[in-house]
Amino acid sequence: MLKKNIIAVLLSVSLPFAAHAADSYSMDPQHTYAHFSVNHLGFSTMQGRFDKSSGKVTLNRAAKSGSVDVTIETASITTGFGKRDDHLRSPDFFNVTEFPSLTYKSSAIKFKGDTPVSVEGNLTLLGVTKPVTLTILAFKCANHPMNKKEMCGADATAQIKRSDFGMKFGLPNIGDDIKLTFEVEAYKD
What we know:
Layout: H1 2-19, E1 23-27, E2 33-40, E3 44-50, E4 53-60, E5 65-73, E6 77-78, H2 82-89, E7 101-112, E8 115-125, E9 128-143, E10 150-161, E11 174-188
Antiparallel strand pairs: 1-4, 1-11, 2-3, 2-11, 3-6, 4-5, 5-7, 7-8, 8-9, 9-10, 10-11
């Protein structure tokens, strides 16, 4: 009888923890992009993106917690103009030979109800790590309408100063303020 009571107590204590376990998601590289925009000579806003990224997201909505870990291949930068892309890959900008990736690792996710609304974390670019907050503009989890697999998607944005990371070429003519936008789709593991 004592053994049954101990098992019942252990089960009653462990079940709530199992019910609140975090779900893990792997980013879909075909539907995940990092975009950026920067002022060019005061005349226009130049746009670009990185075509190769990978990462993991964990979410525990009940505990209002989670994590984000993203790696972006800097050589995958594209602006639609090959000569500019080559210059952006050079030591003047992303120095892709020495720094083949940039990373973002979260330290906290803030929720409003069951929905994440921002991510606090650290961006590492050119070997320099700085805190960056991502504001989540859109978020949805559901079964994918075509393949029926569970997934989550989000659009998030942040503002950084490239000079904070040591990228100073062309200042002030090429803007210091960079708007980052991340479009993410991730399948449940």
